[in-house]
Amino acid sequence: MNKRILALLIGSSLSCSATAGDAYTIDARHTFPSFEINHLGFSIQRGLFNKTRGKVLLDPEAATGNINISIETASINTGLAELEEVLRSDDFLDAARYPEITFVSTKLSFNKEQLVAAEGLLTLHGIAKPVHLNVDRFYCGFNLIALKQTCGANATTTIKRSDFDVDKYAPKLGDDVKIAIQIEATKD
Questions:
Q1: Taking the model in full, what pTM does it have?
Q2: SS3 label, residue 60
Q3: CA–CA separation, 22 vs 19, rounded Å?
């Protein structure tokens, strides 16, 4: 118990940036890519994906790094089991044929040591397209619960689902899909 208290005291005094070339593993328990789409003009339908994995490499001092995220397509969750089955079908995500959605960064942008954006390729429905993620929240520090160095971020973008051949009922069912990725990753 004394070791835990000592770690908490030390950790509470540490609020630092990641250092040169730190490797992190995405914490699937705290990473939930979510989306929202116009539902036939009546409302905004929201959902998220429950299974995500990946790696992050950060060197904020050198303003470099990379992000590699894989999202299990079948883990889609809207709160409506019937809708989830439709979204998993070949009319939309075709989860049987395309079991993963991936994002692989090609460039990270920093303002001083703060990550502010990521450019990369989003692969959805077997089609890879460049996307720009805005990062409006980024923080690295000692996680007092996990007792590990952790980085977290909130990244957002908007894509056109028709760009990825997921265009059933478009444009009545919105073509623009807002995506938010709330991510936490712990240092390896």
A1: 0.86
A2: coil
A3: 6
